[in-house]
Structure prediction request, 278 residues.
Amino acid sequence: MNQKANEAAVRSDFEQANLQHDVDEKLFKEGIGSDHVRNLSRVKEEQLAIRLKLETERTAVAADSAKARLAAQQAKIDEQKALYQLKRSQVDALHVRAGIHGVLQLVPVDVGQHVTPGTNLARVADPKKLKAEIKIAETQAKDVTPGQIAAIDTRNGVVNGHVSRIDPSVVNGTVTVDVTIDDPLPLGARPDLSVDGTVTLENLKDVLFVGRPVHGQPDSTIGIFKIIDDGSEAVRVNVKLGRSSVNTIEIVQGLKVGDKVILSDMSAWDNFDRIRLK
Prediction:
């Protein structure tokens, strides 16, 4: 502001000197004024013109300098705003929020406890959207594929579902299979509830089958004791097995409908083809 005031004062002096020089020049031409006065007014006008030019340049430099200072201050303000937003986001991040709507089940940490990144701070579950995890023996998991029909017994009703995921790893001899529930959940269904699950691998019609023997493997031939003579004796017969489930196995050859067999471990009588039952 001071520089603009200086420029305005010099401009005013220059304009006055310019007018005075015009008057002196006119009087000199009319023979009234002297040449000396005319020259003095001309020199004063020229000096003030130079001063006005310098003051104008100083005003422009001051304006550019002010803009630069304002830009620097604005940059500092923007930097502080960004820092504030960062700190605020870090504070907001301290408030743990679940990514779903549900019910808080478990908080495994205590207030004030120091935890490492990735630590489970809480467990939230949606009781309306549950899945079943069933454990299947690793020897039978090879036949399970995504999309197969499954039935889940919740102890308060059986609901239908389908296999949605098969864990690639084996833990304690079992494979975890995730089943997505397709039916409405029965009353009492809640997270961590113990359930029984059955996966339908294949639907076979008109198949002869028995309970699964102790040592019976699919697509193999084994010796089984068949009960005869009203249950007083049993003879060994060779039976060809087919496909199997958890509790039953297909009989391809060696037995007929109505035959009774011994499914328990009879390895102690491997050297005998006929035994008497008591």
Q: What stands out?
A: The chain has a mean pLDDT of 83.
